[in-house]
Specification:
alpha/beta; eight-stranded parallel beta sheet; two-stranded antiparallel ribbon; 12 strands
Length: about 400
Amino acid sequence: MANTWFETVAIAQERARKRLPSSVYGALLAGTEKGISYNDNLQAFSEIQLAPRVAGLAPSRDLSTTVMGQPISMPVIISPTGVQAVHPQGEVAVARAAAARGTAMSLGSFGSKPLEEVVAANPQTFFQMYWMGTRESMVRRMASAADKGAKGLILTLDWSFSHGRDWGSPVIPESVGLKTMVQFAPQVIRKPRWLLDFARNGGIPDLTAPNLRDTQGVAPTFFGAYYEWMQTPPATWEDLVWLRSQWDGPFLLKGICRVDDARMAVDAGFTAISVSNHGGNNLDTTPAPIRMLPSVVDAVGQQIEVVMDGGVRRGSDVVKALALGARAVLIGRAYLWGLAANGQAGVENVLDILRNGIDSTMYGIGKASVHDLDESDVVIQPGFTRTLGVSQRP
């Protein structure tokens, strides 16, 4: 049997590239326009240096923490992503992997698996929402999430509209029919193992959004749901105050970049915020989240839980984010590449890579607990951080 284990997230990415049809792999790369934000998300971590110790090192390290009331074995959470057609088990495989490694799962509204199946695989599941549709439909979705066991909600607001990429965006079909099969056949036929996996598990997914079913129980297509989102007027802060009041439990607002928005999120009553630029797949030239994290933590870190997502590929990246004030990080592409490379075991592999990297980094800098990390553990060069949403005038 071929060795399916991989040592780094980069190897997982390369295996995903080899296994997936080009359009599916291209969708995972994402990035908007020139990809400046996408690249900065990665580059920024390389600009942060670590401050090692040589004596008095902790013989064991505690990586556990809590996020939105959920105890997790390490400060890494599965971020919600779109339809996970990289593997037939999709979000259920990811949920099982996260549960096996003691961390929380987040399921996207546009996900390919029903929430009840994901909760059954991992009881520590958060449900992600967009501001879309009528208030009545949003309340109905929240009530359904509560009934099905979601531990909290994540409202994604760091996605406005992707206008494409300078190097071209992959074509995503609205449905899978004969015409679509013919169109994509040249790509798919070159990836027989990927196709065989789906053939053994009921065929190619139908690209519907089961967690957005209407009152008649009909699930919209991916693009039907996307159209509803596009037609919904953007939320005001008054809308967000109302939405928060409709959920009796933990609620995270994802997409914070500015200090003034962070303060508004506190005033609106959110439990947590994620500093994020949607993985560089929204408004290009937005700074990397790790650059914006310190100013947001300084402004509201004593009032609200602050997490971060974007560009995390190594355990040392996680440690750097925690040293700058994040409670935990969310990962997206990293686990999707693991899922594509080897299903549930591939996601577990990615989580193990991150856990081992966190542990070894903490050993090297002499910290016994993730709660002990602070700015003394890293070296930040002048000009690294970015502060948005405050006056730059003296």
